[in-house]
Design brief:
The chain is of the alpha/beta class and 279 residues long. The protein has one domain (14-263): TIM Barrel. Helices cover 38% and strands 15% of the residues. It contains ten helices and ten strands. An eight-stranded parallel beta sheet has the order 3-4-5-6-7-8-9-10. A two-stranded antiparallel ribbon has the order 1-2. Helix 6 (177-185) links the parallel strand 8 (165-169) and strand 9 (189-193). It is globular and about 55 Å long. Bound molecules: nicotinamide-adenine-dinucleotide (NAD). The site of nicotinamide-adenine-dinucleotide has 25 residues, from helix 9.
Length: 279
């Protein structure tokens, strides 16, 4: 059983979440989410952009686990950065998920290509609706994703509520120091997307050596590092054995020296730049 972090709004969030990016809508997303809940995950991460909310929602419903024992996150995509856009996007996500509320709703991307000359206003307006939806009980906690310090500072100019979470790419060798420091200072939970380097860590010789040293797998060592840093990893797999494996790592006690080596691992893909990405 994984424990929880307490967010700056006083609510709790399970320390490991199940990732669903690229789990195809239909059997793949449905079965893998169901397997994850069976294996003990109580935190599921999806997004409108993943186009699998219907299958994820069906698995949640069929799991037999009480709604209030599950933590469900979804995200507002790049076509909805306005008050009305956010309102329609959240309603559509809740309908696809067949839920009355989500535990966490994130602005997926701070600077969509279509609003690159006025992203500050887009985020402020979407956030204004999210604050209202939180009060109305449609969302428990509100947060952001892929926000760098300048995006967080811009949002803070109009926000009444501080983001509870920032979900960013964090993996062995991909450590976004500036925004990590900012989030720690402002008590914002840092979620790690791509905690397994989106697959690239498995061929890394240093990670393989560490896995051998701790008598665990590469995935488990990477996830232990994520928790060591105080991040909240969101590992994704659609295979039953790996889904289980990715939850069985909390017994690893990394040394400070090994954690530092993982943080500085060479050759990792850097996080995408949200201000220049082509979407
Ligand atoms: P990840 O780092 O979780 O890597 C997933 C890949 O690693 C799998 O496809 C599989 O090939 C492999 N894998 C998983 N477990 C394994 C194991 N035990 N052994 C061997 N190989 C294994 O990458 P991800 O899915 O991109 O990221 C995790 C989650 O974070 C996503 O599913 C999604 O929920 C979220 N995410 C968010 C954003 C964002 O912009 N907010 C972007 C990407 C991902």
């Amino acid at each position: 059983m994984v424990s929880v972090y307490t967010m700056n709004d006083g609510l709790t969030i399970p320390k490991v979440g199940f990732g669903t990016f690229k789990a195809a809508d239909g059997e793949e997303a449905y079965q893998s989410t169901l397997e994850a809940i069976k294996a003990g995950y109580r935190h599921i991460d999806t997004a409108a952009y993943y186009r699998n909310e219907e299958s994820v929602g069906r698995a949640i419903k069929d799991s037999g686990i009480a709604r209030d024992e599950l933590f469900v996150t979804t995200k507002l995509w790049n076509d909805a950065h306005s008050y009305e856009g956010a309102k329609a996007a959240l309603a559509a996500s809740l309908e696809r998920l067949q839920l009355d509320y989500v535990d966490l709703y994130l602005i997926h991307w701070p600077n969509p290509k279509a609003i690159r000359d006025h992203w500050q206003e887009g985020n402020a307006e979407a956030w204004r609706y999210m604050e209202e939806a939180q009060k109305a009980g449609l969302i428990r906690s509100i947060g952001v994703s892929n926000f760098l310090v300048h995006h967080l500072e811009a949002l803070a100019k109009t926000a009444k509520v501080t983001p509870a979470v920032n979900q960013i790419r964090l993996a062995p060798g991909c450590y976004q120091e500036e925004v990590v420091d900012y989030c720690r200072k402002h008590d914002i939970v840092i979620e790690a997307w791509g905690p397994l380097g989106q697959g690239e860590i498995f061929s890394n010789a240093d990670m393989k050596a560490l896995a051998e040293k701790y008598d665990k797998t590469v995935a488990q060592v990477a996830l232990a590092w994520s928790l060591y840093e105080g991040f909240l990893p969101l590992p994704k797999s659609v295979h039953k054995d790996r889904i289980k494996e990715n939850l069985d790592f909390t017994d690893i006690q990394l040394s400070a020296e090994d954690a530092d080596a993982i943080r500085h691992l060479a050759g990792a893909t850097p996080a995408p730049d949200p201000d220049t990405k082509d979407f």
